[in-house]
Structure formats: structure tokens, C-alpha cells
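Re: that chain you flagged

S.,

Sorry for the slow reply, it's been a week of failed gels. I finally had a moment to sit down with the sequence you sent. For the record, here it is as I used it:
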Amino acid sequence: MILHNFPHQPTPFIGRRDELAQIRDLLADPACRLLTLVGAGGVGKTRLATESATQALPAFADGIYFVALQPLSETDAIVPAIARAVGFAFYGPETTTEQLLNYLHGKSLLLLLDSFEHLLAGVPLVTDILAKAPGVKILTTSREVLNLREEWLFPVAGMPAPSSVYSADIEQYDAVALFVQSARRVRPDFSLEDERESVVRICTLTEGMPLALEMAASWLRFLACQQIVREIQTSFDFLSTTARNVEPRHRSIRAVFEQSWRLLSEKERRVFARLSVFRGGFEREAAEQVAGATMRVLARLVDKSLLHVMSSGRYGIHELLRQYGEDQRDVSGDAPPTGEAHCRYYAGFVQHGETALKGPEQKGFLSAIETETGNLRAAWHWALRHGDYRALDQMLEGLYQFGFIRSRHREMMEILQQTVEHLLSQEHRDTEVERLLGRVLARRWGYLHWWYPTEDRDAFADVQRALEIATAHADRFEIAFCLLMRAYVEIGRQHYREALPVLEQSRAHFRALGEPFYESWVLHRIGYACMNLGDYPQFVAFTEQSLALSRTSHNQAGLVNCLYNLGSVFLLSGDYAKGERYCAEALEVATDLEHWSQAAHATNLLALAAFCRGDFDAAYQRATRGLQLVHEMNLLKVRAYPLSILIALACVREDYAEAVRLERLGDPYDTNSMGYQLIYWARSMLACGLGDYDLARSYIQKSLDLPDILHSPSTIIRLLPVAACVLSDAQPRQAVALLAWMHSNPDAAAWIARWPPASRLQDRLAAQVGAVDYGAAWERGETMPFESVVAALTAAFQPAPDDSDRSTDQDLCEPLTEREVDVLRLLAQGLTNPQIAEELVIGVGTVKTHTLNIYRKLDVHNRTEATTRAHVLGLLIS
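Prediction finished late last night. Pasting the C-alpha cells below so you have them in one place:
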């Protein structure tokens, strides 16, 4: 007995596992007798309903039956269509409806009524069937809800698609699987791996709409995936097919949408066309003010599957539908006034939120801007094209803050660059345009300049021009802001002393204006400049002030920066406990704020701290997460941080193949001083593990040449085990002393004890120098002050200058005496004052006197600086 009449499907069913399970449960629920799969045309309702009904066949003793309503033009044709589907022939004097109802009474079957949207006047028949035939269930597909009391709704959207090219296991997404299946029908050699990025873009542009995906894949006979992406971006009319056995209504996306358009009233058409101005959805208030949409019209458009309501309560439009509506808006002549209304609405939205960005509501308004990013971008570009400079001025500050805090640096730089070029191209700039130009020039730099540096003189010239414009307009806030930006440029040029008075001027203006939000930023930068000048007490003092002001002014972004910088300095100074506390809070606040660039920084620093403490599992997890964030945010300038830790971890495991792979992954590096400290250290470990001591030596020398290396004790400590390996042949006793010092300092020994080359080195050195000398060198190393360790390391790895470049003590205002040179040599070898006294057979007090004279003549303050200066002057070369 034939229990169904379902049409044969030409291709296998793909995906929709969750939807199938939910529909199966609904069909099995006795309370659900009428289930409507509702959604836009082309979204796959019919195919999903057919598959669901087929799987439900065992539950219906009298079968399941497919009733195609789309070919029908009159409601009177519905009854005969159902009768044909179930195999019933009319007879007798009763009406055809009565005969069908009598036939269905007592039956246990499922009717699939496909494409009901254009026959809604016939829905009373559905009610009659449900009332007269209690064993019958009805599954319908429609672009519009039937709006019956008995109706259960199941919205059907596009198939799940990856959110980005970085998404894992993209082949597991239904949209990708459908595209690949369709692609291989026309190109059997199609490779997802080769076309990964373009396939993700196609799935995103079509929002997983099955019909659109199949149409896009059909073009692979003639075009590459990347070309298909460009065509879809240009016009949705590209999405069409020439297949002969596809019915006309499904031969193009435009044809699909035109069916829905014909079912709208004139008012619904006008409103929907205006709503197409929105990007990424919209709120009800925005729809009312921009498009004149009442709640009743919005509800009708939702019922007709032209809009959908998101879980947040926002309204959304499928991107391809939005493009269709945009075409209709252009034809109607509504585009200019609608674009202006949209731009003005969102300009006001951002301006009104500026106060929230600098107060307790910062996080909430940042999220609101994030949600409206598409609309704000569209509003900005509309204002730029149409010369609405007032709207640009209203949006500038809020979007600048958002771009920095939410790590949208690249996007904001592109927008600001386009705006500068546009404003400079205007032949006649009035006061409004000139003032806007100054504001945009200033904001193009700052923190955004840090991520995308350019020529320093260009940066300085632009900020100076912005300052001149602000001064001409007596705009004190802009003057203060431009001074802050000018200081950023000076800091970027490493002119830290020059930046300090500029920052103090900026601070005075912001304080007078009652702007604690920006004053906290200025304090932070003062502290940063002090740190780079080697004045760590002042760095801590100013950064703590900034931290306190950030807390009271609810400047969460400033708070994160202060916590991160304090954590960074304490970690690099070897105070891991305090450094981790600051970094952990920085990570917590950054994550809550979705400030992902600083979250990446904090995660990477915590990974470094875990490594140094010997917690390799935590170090691996944090470094892996840090690298993921770096790639997601495109923060390649700090890629060296997590990669260095992962390389070091591979070296500890002696998995040198993996270490080499990771090292090549980041090459070439564009990084900062700390990044170079880390990558040189990791590369020196790798070279040492591979037995290439000359290469390891070169990386240690590069590290010691970095400008702030001597102010970073933890970096010096990380270099010591590699240095001991390199020195083991030429200076074995010095190598023993370095190993002894490391093992006598718990913070230094935590990870070193688990690095195999260091363990093997001890045994080799013991055999090489003999027990007596080994013990003496070990004892000397245990008692060495850290300054002596640094001096010894600097002396051992300072490259000898060429004879042609060698300076002499004649370059000094007052030459060193012969005895002072002797003392200097021993200082450079890392000997303590008592050890120098014993070596030269003089008193400890005399050594102190010579040392002070050396410092005075070399114009230095400690042993490390004296050793470095002596090498530069060639004083230690015999």
C-alpha cells in the first residue's frame, strides 16, 4: 500500500539536524495539530518539511501526503488538490468539502500543505479539517503565518554558517556542507581547503540561504570562488540559475523575492523599502523615526517573513532581502530622505551616548555601539558622501573611543583616513569643515597610531596642524586633546623627555575643564614616559594616580591600561606575585569590557609568568589563547609574545621540530622592545638546544643591545641558562658561577631546573673543571649580587668593537688610573668588593673609593652601566 506521494528529491538532504529533531518532537506532541514552517522564500522550508514528514511516516497509519499549493491561484482549488494527493475521488450530491471531510474523518495521516502564503483566504478549510478529522495533522510551509488559534509556528532561517575564517571545523557548518555538495556536482575536484576564506564569505553574504548557496555554487563552472564573492557583493541579481528543471519562481533570487513583494500592501511596500536602509538590524524606535514604521506594520512584515525578531527584541532583515528592498527604495525616489533620516538618527544616538562612554554606563553603551556598528558605518559614509559635516562631528568622539576600547583599530583608521582625504579635497573649507578636519587629524593618531605607525614627521605635522586649528577656534578641550596626541607622537619617536612638558600642559587643561576621564589618560602617559626614562618610582607613582582616577571616573579602558602596565613592569622586574595580581585584574576587566587587545596583552603576560614559575600547563593554555586573540584582532605587532612562550615550551620538551615550526610562523617580526626581548630569548634557547652556540650568542648579544634591557631583571635572568651553555667551553668557571646563582634564587630556578640542556651542563662542567674549582666557582656564584651577575653577562657578551671604531680613555674628561682600570676589569667579571680587595691585595674601603671614582669619570651610576660604558670606550680590551 502506498502511504505517501512525496516528490523525489534530486539531491541528498544536508544538515538541519537540530531543526529535524525539534519538528519531530512537535509532530509527536498530541497538542500540536497544525504546525507552520514559516520563513522567507528560498530559505528551504519545503525541503525541511518534506524531510521531517518522511521521518514521521511510521507515526501515521494512513500515511503522509504532499499537497503542492503554489501552482494554485484560487482557494476553491485547495480541496481538489488535497483529494488528488490522498487518492480520493468525489462522488454523490454533497459538496466536495463535505466529502473530503467525511473521507478524512477517522483517518490517521499527515497533510503537508506546501506554499500557503498566497491562498490565506482558504485557511477556514484548515480549521474544518482539524475539527472534523481528529486523527489528521497538518504541516504547512508559508512565507506568512496562517494566524489561526490552533497554529504552532516554527520559524525557518538560513543554515548555520561560520562567523569568520578563523572558525574551527568549518566543514561541520550546514551552510558550508551544502555549498560543498553543490560545488562538487559541477566541479568534482573542488577543494574546501583551497577555497576556505571565499566559501566562508559566500555563506556569510547569503546568510546560509540554501537556494542562494546552490545558485552561487552553480557558477563554479565559469568562475572562481573569489570572483563569486565579488559578484554577490556587487548585486544579488547574480544569484540565478539556468537549470532547465527548476521552476521559474526559483530561477533567481529576485524572482523569489518578487513573489513576496506582490503579496504586500502599498504601505507595507513603502515601509519595507525604507527599512532596507538599516544594516545589521534595528530597534523599533529607529524604525519609527527613520522609516515611519508603526508597530502594526512591523508585525505584518514579521508575519510575512520579510522581517524577523531577534532574541534581543531587535528586528532583522535577511541581507539579500535588504538588497532587494534597497532596489525598490531607489526606484521609488525615497532613498535621499531616508538616508538623511537614518544618518541624523544615528549621529544623535552617538552624541547622546558620549557621557555614558565616560561614566558608569561605559560598558553598556559600548555594547550598544557594537550592536549598531553596521548602521553607524552606513551613517558615517552617507554623511561623508553628502557633506553632512555636522553629523560627522557628532559621531567622531564616540566612535573614536569605541574603536580604541573595542580594538577596532584597523576599521577606524580606514574611516578616519577616508575622511581626512575627503576633507582635504574640498576646495573651499568653511569654519565647520576646517574645525572637523582638525578633530579628525588629531584622532587619526593617538593609540590608533601605535598600531599602524607611519612617518613620524607626518604624524607630528598633522597633530601640530590640528593643534593650530583648535587654538584658532579657542577650543580648550581640543587643545588639551591635541597636546595629548602630540605627546603620543613624541613617545612613538622615543622622545620621552620632550613628551613630559607637553603632557603636563594637556593635564592642566583637562583638569581645568573637569575632565577626569582624559586626565587619567594623561597621567598614564606620564607614567609610561617615566618608565622609559628609567625612573621607575615615578612610573609607579603616576600610574597609581591614573589607576585611582580611572576607578573613580569609571574609565574602565584606562583602568585596564594601568593594570597591564603595572603588571608588566613588576613581572619584568621579577616580582611575579605582584605582577600576576595586576595582570589578572587587567584580564578580568578587559574581558568584561570586551577590550580584546588588552585582554591579549594580559593573557600573554600571565603566560610568561606561569612559564617562569614552572607551571608549563598554564603557560601553554594562556599562550595559546593569547595567540588566538592576536590573530583574531590582527595584532601582529605583539605576535612575538605568545609565540616566544610556545617556542620556549617546545624547547623544554626538546621538541625542536615544533619549536622551529613556531619560530618560522612569526618570521618576520614587527614588534616592540619587549617583544624583541622575548623572541631573542626564545631563539637563543632554540639555538642552544640545537647545539648552535654561535647563533645563541648572537641572540644574547642582540638582547643586551636593546635600550631598556638592563632595567628588566627577569629578562636578564631568562638569558642566564643559555649564557651558561654558551660560556661553558671558553669560560667554564663563569658558567658554573651563573648556574650557581640561578639555583640559589627560586624565582630564577623554577623553569631552569626542567630545561634539559641546563641539567646536562652541570654534569659536564663538573667533569670539565674538577671538583675543587667547580666547588669554588659554585660558592662564588651563590654569593654574587645581582648587579655583578649582570655585569658579568654584559662583559662576556659585549661584542668587541672594530679597531677602526675603538675609543680610548682619552675620550674621557679625566682618564682612569691604572689601578682604576684593574678594579674596573674585576667589576666587569662580576667580582664583589671583598673579592676584588683579595685579588688586588688592597682594602675593601679602597675598592669602594676606586669604584666611586670610576663611576664619576665614566658618568654612570652602577656596575652594569660602568661595564657597558667601558666596553663602548674600549677600556677592557687588552
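What I noticed first: The longest strand covers residues 136-142.

Talk soon,
D.
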